[in-house]
Design goal:
Low-confidence stretches: 1-19, 98-104, 284-293
Number of helices: 0
Shape: rod-shaped
Structural class: mainly beta
Largest sheet: 5 strands, mixed
Strand content: over 45%
Radius of gyration: 41 Å
Number of strands: 31
Length: about 375
Amino acid sequence: MQIKALLLYFCLTSGFTANSQASFTIGPSVCINGPVTLAASAGTLSGVAYSWSVAPPSASFSALTGANTTITFTQIGNYTVSLSLTSGTVNSLAQHSTNAITGFPIAINISMSSFTTCLMMNSPKLSKPVTLTASGADYFNWFPYSPPSVPCSTCSSIQVRPQSTTCYSVYGYSYAGCTGSAVVCVSVIPQFTFGVAPPAATICEGDAVFFTCGNIGPGAAGNPSAFTYSWTESPNAAFSLSSYLTPTTLATPLNSTTYTVEVTDTQSCVSQAQTVTVNVQTCVGLVDQEEGFYDFRLFPNPSTGQFTLDLKGTDFTEIQVINSNGQLVWQGLCNGEQDNYKEPDLSALETGLYLLILKGPNRKQVIRLVKLI
């Protein structure tokens, strides 16, 4: 049963006895199931015996005799509380009557730092924090809340980070034993979506593939040019991406690998995570090379922009340099039997990772170039 607060109005009735010195006071706040203190006075009488009663009897005393006691009302209604004093042959009676007890609960109010929020992390799922503040009682208890809280005077404000739209209840209690409650709901905006092209890829050993994010779905806030990106890779493919914070990246995995990418908009709301898988195969018709063994030389690498290729004795016929956005930035032809050296010049290009691709009649070799400042 919900505990409710009561308002009491009192009147003192005399003339029941030969002596009207009996009186008592009652606490100002009366609540259903909340004990209320009664304090009696016998005036100038001495050797007094006290006797308490109430009508109707839907209330109980902690003690029926004694100058001080407590009374607990268990139902909403009108009550008459009586005190009878006996001092020798003198009797005195005092009565307090309630009037129009309607049983309204404590009014609890909740303010919110925001009515809506959004997820800002996918693993673990956490939304941007919202602060809920309750008022109208002396101490509070919230549900649901993690970790679970117990009623306390410092629990008027909590910070919540729901994974989905959630309603929170707060229960407020007064020191007089009254209670009330309120409910508020925090709406979590659905995550927006986006696309990755290609959605999957199959490449040959030593080859590479570019992935590009796009097709931002509804719900994303702000200009896509201001969005941020975050790529992660499975543990067996560490450092196999040319960039981890751009919408386009170059993947050069040695083994089949799954990549995960997220987009964050200008309001710090994160998208649904997208995954793409690169299957790496040994392709028929390509010459296998042991890891770390090449029949050409590349130096220096890293470089400030001047790279030298020693292709003497190789069968490569074409050279390409690709940037991290998949754009061709340098291209040349070669003949390993006649050309000893080729010198790709990347001095005018931005610092970063580039892809050197050597093509021959029956093979293709991919090498990473690192351009320094």
